[in-house]
């Protein structure tokens, strides 16, 4: 089942809106936020904007030295703590420590991720993209859920991607144990999982007034592309033969700051009240795709189906129990 409110609203913002525009007049003083991957790319810009608006922001980081180098000197209350999404024990340590120190969590931004990497195993044999992008964040939310429910009116934002169009959940083999690994389809499955996570998380926050959203940030050149060789990005049309951003990509891609605005909008907009669980793009709720496939817009039905979301939640609980 797809929510009736999975359709655009009259948002004053769009694909090229800037963080200061989206958060203008919004005071986040007294709010506690966590931003995974908050020390590079759009995560860094998300932290900057939330801290500027007054939030106390914690950035869990696999590489704390790199995080300190990126965040030192940034305005606001920003803290760094060790955590590796691919290591469930470290996720639990971070989450339990955070829950013991902070009385409530108002904003959980699941921003970190990997894309199109070679076949790699993490945890108890999980495929890396599913294990990091989905299961790591699922484990984090599993511990922090009571803290989110305690805050009332919290918001959870899961960064998905138009990549979700590449694959539904491989229900019989989400970890690609059959030898057919495809790095792009594996990425697509993980982004579908991120979107379905938001649907199921929203249902679990409803009684406390919280909401969860999935977000497609848009195309942005960030360290997310680190696993892609230059020749592949040329073939994709992202770079020209000289290794520079292609003209077509330049027109399509956003800056990292513009890439974080849909996250900020989902985390703060009053236009989303009562519309939890939706998939957003370009500072608005996305339309559901229908008919001919559109590669870089809209959300596919399989990524916002509540039955699939509950099925994935149950599957994830079972996988996490064995970690």
Structural description of this entry:
This protein has one domain: NAD(P)-binding Rossmann-like Domain (Rossmann fold). The protein is 39% helix and 12% strand. The protein is built from 11 helices and 10 strands. It has an 8-stranded mixed beta sheet, sandwiched between helices. Strands 5-6 form a two-stranded antiparallel ribbon. Helix 3 links the parallel strand 2 and strand 3. The radius of gyration is 18 Å and the shape is globular.
Topology of helices and strands:
Layout: H1 19-22, E1 32-35, H2 41-52, E2 56-61, H3 64-71, E3 77-82, H4 88-101, E4 107-110, E5 121-122, E6 126-127, H5 128-151, E7 155-159, H6 183-205, E8 211-216, H7 230-235, H8 247-252, H9 256-259, H10 261-268, E9 279-281, E10 284-285, H11 306-321
Parallel strand pairs: 1-2, 1-4, 2-3, 4-7, 7-8, 8-9
Antiparallel strand pairs: 5-6, 9-10
Helix pairs in contact: 4-5, 5-6, 6-11
Structure described in brief:
The chain is built from 11 helices and 10 strands. The chain has 323 residues and is of the alpha/beta class.
Strand content: 5-15%
Give the uncertain stretches in residue-range form. 222-228
| Topology as a string of helices (H) and strands (E) | HEHEHEHEEEHEHEHHHHEEH
Percent in helix: 25-40%
End-to-end distance = 30 Å
The backbone outline, from C-alpha atoms, is: globular
Structurally, how many domains make up the residues? 1
Within the largest sheet, what's the order of strands? 3-2-1-4-7-8-9-10
Identify the CATH homologous superfamily: NAD(P)-binding Rossmann-like Domain
Most strands sheet: 8 strands, mixed
Return the structural class.
alpha/beta
| Overall mean confidence score, pLDDT | 91
CATH topology: Rossmann fold
Mind telling me which CATH architecture this is? 3-Layer(aba) Sandwich
Radius of gyration: 18 Å
Q: How many DSSP helices?
A: 11
How many beta-strand elements?
A: 10
């Amino acid at each position: 089942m797809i929510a009736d409110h999975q359709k655009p609203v009259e948002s004053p913002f769009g694909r090229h809106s800037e963080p200061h525009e989206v958060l203008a007049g919004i005071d986040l003083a007294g709010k506690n936020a966590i931003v995974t991957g908050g020390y590079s790319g759009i995560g860094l810009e998300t932290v900057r904007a939330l801290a500027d608006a007054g939030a106390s922001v914690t950035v869990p980081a696999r590489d704390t030295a790199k995080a300190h180098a990126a965040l030192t000197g940034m305005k606001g209350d920003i803290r760094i703590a060790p955590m590796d999404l691919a290591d469930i024990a470290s996720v639990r340590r971070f989450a339990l420590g955070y829950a013991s120190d902070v009385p409530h969590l108002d904003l959980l931004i699941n921003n970190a991720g990997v894309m199109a990497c070679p076949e790699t195993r993490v945890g108890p044999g999980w495929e890396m993209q599913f294990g990091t992008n989905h299961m790591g964040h699922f484990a984090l939310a599993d511990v922090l859920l009571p803290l989110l429910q305690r805050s009332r009116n919290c918001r959870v934002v899961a960064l998905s991607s138009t990549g979700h169009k590449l694959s539904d959940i491989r229900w019989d083999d989400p970890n690609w144990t059959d030898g057919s690994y495809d790095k792009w389809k594996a990425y697509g499955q993980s982004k579908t999982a991120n979107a379905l996570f938001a649907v199921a998380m929203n249902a679990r926050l409803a009684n406390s007034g919280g909401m969860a959203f999935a977000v497609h940030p848009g195309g942005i050149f960030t360290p997310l592309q680190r696993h892609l060789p230059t020749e592949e990005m040329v073939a994709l049309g992202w770079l020209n033969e000289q290794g520079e951003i292609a003209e077509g990509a330049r027109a399509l891609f956003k800056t990292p700051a513009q890439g974080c605005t849909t996250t900020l909008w989902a985390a703060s907009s009053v236009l989303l009240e009562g519309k939890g669980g939706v998939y957003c793009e370009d500072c608005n709720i996305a339309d559901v795709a229908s008919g001919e496939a559109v590669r870089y817009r809209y959300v596919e039905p399989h990524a916002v189906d509540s039955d699939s979301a509950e099925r994935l939640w149950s599957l994830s609980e079972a996988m996490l129990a064995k970690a």
